[in-house]
Amino acid sequence: MIPYELIVLFRVMPKPELTTAIKRTANAIFDRGGLIRKLENLGTRETPYKISSNGMPHRQASYFLYECNIPPSKIGDIINEYSRDVDIIKKDIYKKTIPEQFECTLHEEMQPPPYRKDVQEIMALARRKEKRKFKANTGMDYYPFQK
Amino acid sequence: MNTLLIQRLIPKMPLRYIIRSASTDADVPNFDMENPFEKEKPQCILCKHKIVVDYKNIRLLSQFQSSYTGQIYGRHITGLCKKQQELLETEIKKAQNSGMMGFYTKEPIFLQDPELYDVERPIRPHRF
Ligand SMILES: [Zn+2]
């Protein structure tokens, strides 16, 4: 099972209703053989843009983050169930990314264009596309015949 | 006269002797050492402080966004390396799609945040 991060936006509602809604969404994961590692409340606040769902525009939402492991085949199923949930405004699921180690290449990118590797590649490509010119081999520096 | 001049230029010491002295003498500088005057390589601000860009950290992400149009600034303005800029843009798009961050707006509370770069002075000229 792959670790996922599930972000759910609930509509603003009183606490007991919110707890039942959270339980409902959590049970949807458990029923499909998933498990929740962490459940985080990101707060109730105004959304950055108006979100229309369930036939109503929403300008405020309660943000919740679920860190869970779900079998990948069941994700579409869970998303489908959440989309039919009246209390959920928006949901999004992302694979949990592990930060990879890499070296900063800024010093290479700060060089003048002809020294940069990607520019050199483009130049090589342009050179390859150049049309071959026909050489007459007449030994003269001008074309002897009428054009 | 020419031959005399050439003879003067040729060292009197036999070549064999010179080579031996160079290999044994401790005072001869070591030419294989790395350049002590080499400048420190410049690093972008995220690599320097080892910051991992995350789509939940909206405060950091919105520092790379225009406060007028919400546009994500390019590499020539932010001064990030290629990889970090790529990561940053994917994370911003994730945050925008999950309803945490605006597409065209910046949160008013983030407007007073310190500027990490000068928008007016990009590294490379651009057409805007
Ligand atoms: Zn970097």
UniProtKB/TrEMBL annotation, chain A:
Classification via InterPro entries: Ribosomal_bS6, Ribosomal_bS6_sf, Transl_elong_EF1B/ribsomal_bS6
One annotated GO molecular function: structural constituent of ribosome
CDD domains tied to this protein: bS6_mito
Signal peptide feature range: none
GO biological process, one term: translation
GO annotations of cellular component type: mitochondrial small ribosomal subunit
Family: Belongs to the bacterial ribosomal protein bS6 family.
Name the UniProt record assigns to this protein: Small ribosomal subunit protein bS6m
Organism: Phyllotreta striolata (Striped flea beetle)
UniProtKB/TrEMBL annotation, chain B:
Entry GO MF terms: small ribosomal subunit rRNA binding; structural constituent of ribosome
SUPFAM superfamilies in the record: Ribosomal protein S18
Keywords attached to this entry: Ribonucleoprotein, Ribosomal protein
Claim: Ribonucleoprotein is one of the keywords in the record: yes
One biological process term in Gene Ontology: mitochondrial translation
UniProt-listed PANTHER family: 30S RIBOSOMAL PROTEIN S18, SMALL RIBOSOMAL SUBUNIT PROTEIN BS18M
Listed name of the protein: 28S ribosomal protein S18c, mitochondrial
Organism: Phyllotreta striolata
Highest classification ranks of the organism: Eukaryota, Metazoa, Ecdysozoa, Arthropoda, Hexapoda
